[in-house]
Amino acid sequence: MVCRSGNRSGRAVAWLNAQGLETVNVAGGMRAWAAAGKPMTADSGRPTVI
């Protein structure tokens, strides 16, 4: 799972794992992804905004 900072998705992952699902959180969220220079695209084709 992923969110902007990793906090909300981290809570969701904890809940889903407690329900028996195997899930992982993207550490640092989309902010960390962008800061690492990873590729990002928007469905609209416009520049991405986090």
Automatic annotation (TrEMBL):
Q: Which CDD domains match?
A: RHOD (cd00158)
InterPro entries for this protein? Rhodanese-like_dom (IPR001763), Rhodanese-like_dom_sf (IPR036873)
Task: Look up the domain of life of the source.
Answer: Bacteria
Annotated Rhodanese domain ranges read 1-42
Instruction: Give the protein's recorded name.
Output: Rhodanese domain-containing protein
This protein's species is Angustibacter aerolatus
